[in-house]
Design goal:
The protein is mainly α. It contains 4 helices and 2 strands; from the N terminus they run ββαααα. It has a two-stranded antiparallel sheet with strand order 1-2. Strand 1 and strand 2 form a beta hairpin. The longest helix has 19 residues. The radius of gyration is 18 Å and the shape is flat.
């Protein structure tokens, strides 16, 4: 696996082990799997799709604090300014799940 060097924005030090890099073959394989999955998804009722997307949203919500901590770690913006989307309540990050709920 090839790693892309990643740096801590607060210290400038390289992070170990870095970030995994995708290859063209990885992208092609993902596109093939997506094409295979599409007919089944397209045949799914809107009610079933909504339930599946709500499950994704709930999973993201359950990890919201960890997602914000990771975003803060990667950007050094501070947790108060680390938003996933936008929020009128600056003490509470916007849910990363909202695109799954509200498109």
């Amino acid at each position: 696996m090839t790693l892309i060097e990643s740096f801590d924005p607060r210290t400038g030090r390289a992070r170990v082990p870095g970030v995994a890099a995708s290859t063209g073959e990885d992208v092609d394989a993902c596109a093939r799997r997506s094409a295979i999955a599409f007919p089944g998804w397209a045949a799914t009722s809107s009610k079933e799709r909504a339930a599946a997307l709500e499950a994704v949203a709930a999973a993201l919500d359950s990890e919201a604090h960890d997602i914000v901590a990771l975003a803060d770690d990667e950007t050094a913006l501070g947790r108060r300014d680390t938003h996933i989307g936008t929020s009128t309540d600056r003490d509470r990050p916007m849910s990363a799940a909202n695109p799954y709920r509200y498109g």
